[in-house]
Amino acid sequence: MSNSARQNAIQAITSFKDEANIDYVKNRPVEFYGCNVFDDKAMRARLPKDVYKSLHKAITLGERMDPSIADTVAAVMKDWAIEKGATHFAHIFYPLTGQTAEKHDSFLMPDGYGGVIAEFSGNMLIRGEPDASSFPSGGLRSTFEARGYTAWDVTSPAYIMENPNGTFLCIPTMFLSWTGVALDKKTPLLRSGQALNRAARRVLKIFGIEPELPIVSFAGLEQEYFCIDHNYNFARPDLQVAGRSLFGARPAKGQEFSDQYFGVIPQRVLSYMMEVEYELYKLGVPVRTRHNEAAPSQYEIAPLYEVSNLAVDHNHIIMSTLRNVAKRYGLKCLLHEKPFHGVNGSGKHVNYSIGNRELGSLFDPGATPHANAKFLVFCSAMIRAVHKFGGLLRATVASASNDHRLGAHEAPPAIMSIFLGDQLTEVFEAFRAGRVENAANGKTARMMNVGVDTLPPLPTDPGDRNRTSPVAFTGNRFEFRALGSSQSAAGSITALNAMMSDSLNHAADYLEKQIASGKDINAAIQSYVEHVIEEHSAIIFNGDGYSEIWHKEAVRRGLPNLRNTPEALPELIKPDVVALYEGNGILNRAELKARHDIYLEQYCKTLRTEATLVIRMARTIIFPAGMRYQGELAETAARMKAVGLDIRLDMLRDVTEQLRGMQDAVVRLETALSGVDGQSDLPTRARLYCEEVLPLMGEVRRYADLLETRVADDLWDLPSYQEILFGK
């Protein structure tokens, strides 16, 4: 091999020595867990009792914090941080780029006598003012209106982030314009949580339940990722810039043997995982699971359930930690949804439920008629929500990277449907038919009577797992499987909260009207469930979501198939979605339009970057390698012919044909790219990128990948899939 990066990667892999610096005997996780978090334990120990009670009440009950305590909280938080070596504090927020953003400010201020003092006031804790001019706003403000404000989110604890040269205090915040417009992903998430609480309490009140704690959404976010040697990443401009390989022939072996899935974790990767977990334990992130995923060099990390706002914050920390710790082991963590063609991509499954500590999950079937009636109402509300707002849910996972994954036999299709399992589906179908029958024991059919009947005992997972369903009921929660690995879960959870708020308000209205007309609560619930199943059962599908039969059936049922991002994003600005978000005080029309435009612009920029890379790599790396090999073949043929030896020229003709085809495809791609760039209308530009540019990128790749299987290995500079994926 002539390529030094390929040689360096192989050398790094073969010579790796596990120099463990984590001792779980001396440093027991049960003792240091959460040590870098200003959590309830730290606040209770350090804050004055009256201040702690006031702040604790604001956090647990979702009430507005008394601003008079801010200075005290800030002073105590500052002292705690400085004890841990912090010199700076940073307001952490999630702008509409989908990434984590931070601005660091020092605690140290001149004292006027040649020295410094540590200063951190309540105002500095509650509000920050980062320059917002370079963040996307979607027209919500002019370029010269650069102000953006961060506002402390008291419900998510502050924490210390460590660096080899020191530490700094991180304060989770919302990010808004000076006019109060939401410029981030956290603000609408928090607003949607308030809407969900209001709606859920209306329904619970009908059942005679008025909990002290607010009803919140919970999320468990399963994070998939790829981990490769960093030398391979440096040798691949496409991985470096685009996060995915734009070229690469399939290796002789992929994932078809299923020997990676849940296999023994390679030593270097396991050491890396252990240090990731060590860092996350200190930050109070309840990571529980680690394992090999289906594709070569693909892995998963999963935490326990948490309140969704905290789960989103922790997931951003997980992604940052995965990237940062990888560097210490000579690895590169890839969070792109489809970094390698021909093997599974990576997702981030959202396990979603609603409830609180008093009530548990409201999606959990109970053991009594009363508990089951409550479950049926909340489950019916979810069915209605997904049917009515499936397009919105699809739009929240729309991106150029996730388009490569959805429907690719590793993720659910772009058609939103809901999987209940056969047993629960039979129960709901019995309501629609006005009867109940238990197929398992062959009992005679009879009327289903809420308040008398109990559901058949449901196991933890009432049915086999359906990997092809975007939304699946899995015992006491719904699993939303369409979210991409690099995406923030905030948008999808905001939509789920909003959808459920709408459906629960609809349920409350329906039940209140039925009861007002003279029906008892059980008859009202029975009528409501029958009504929902009659109107919205089209969304229920327990079969194979990949099958062509389902795609045809979905059309017959009126379910949209939004195959790509340009088709999906307009759902954000449909009148019913605008009414949903505005009616619940989550986002207004302008804020939704801004998100539509920003995400569409990001789609266009992503494809333009990738197309430019395809052209540049084809011309400067792949074509020269092919030309050198073509020259060697031609020279060898000429020498053999000169001495009277006969030689077949099939290989030379094949290489020449692929080079010519790739050269023509590159020219067509350049022409198409130039034409799309001339379009001023954003939706038109996005559609053309999808329909014209993307297929031409694939055509260039097809020729290049064929060349990779023909050109001599010592002339091919790009690391192969075989090297990247199987170099452990």
UniProtKB/TrEMBL annotation:
Q: Which residues form the GS beta-grasp domain?
A: 87-180
Q: Which Gene3D superfamilies match?
A: 1.20.120.1560, Glutamine synthetase/guanido kinase, catalytic domain
Molecular function terms from GO: glutamine synthetase activity
Checking Pfam families in the record gives:
Gln-synt_C, Gln-synt_C-ter, GSIII_N
Which SMART domains does its entry note? Answer: Gln-synt_C
GO biological process annotation, one example: glutamine biosynthetic process
GS catalytic domain segment(s): 196-622
- Name the InterPro entries on file: Gln-synt_C, Gln_synt_N, Gln_synth/guanido_kin_cat_dom, Gln_synth_cat_dom, Gln_synth_gly_rich_site, GS_Type-3, GSIII_N
Question: What family is this protein classified in?
Answer: Belongs to the glutamine synthetase family.
Descriptive protein name: Glutamine synthetase III
Source organism of this protein record: Candidatus Desulfovibrio intestinavium
